[in-house]
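Please, structure for the following, as tokens.
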Amino acid sequence: MPGLDDLLGSLTKQGGSSGGGLEDLLGGLLGGGGGSQGGGLAGLEGMLGGLLGGGSGGSPGTAAKGMNMTAIAAALGPLIAKLVKSGGLSKMVSGAQASGLSAQADSWVGTGGNAPVSGQEIRGVVGDDTVSELAKNAGISDDEAADVLAKVVPHVVNGLTPDGQLPADNDLDQLVAKFGG
């Protein structure tokens, strides 16, 4: 999946790194590191800092909006793997559409920009249990976890659908399994 690798690589790579983008993204999320120089938790922390408005500069684990990026990055990996495997990516998109977020879900899958969602809206997409799991594992409130997921989920869906099409569940499952997810 070269196109998918290239797009996902742009989500996690910093500078002149090498390796497959999809593998780097999943490896970083799942703790496997992938092939990137700036992958793993450090790359994910930088991406989260950018998404949440904290930037990627500063000391390791720099907080954005008072949140510990290291803890959030460590908690997000297994959670995202669980959300996308076994048909979960399709279920998330369907859940968004069923929650009245069809335009937003279509934008995440499509090739244009991602329409934003609120923390409250993302709860209807991923469920309160997922929000609570992230909150518990990252040491943040449920509202903060929902806000994090509202920023991350659209980028994950967008990154996994570079051609405007949902990938085959088997393809995602194989990549998640490769990194122990």
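Residues 1-22, 29-43, 55-64 have pLDDT under 50 and may be disordered. Residues 114 and 152 are 11 Å apart (CA to CA).
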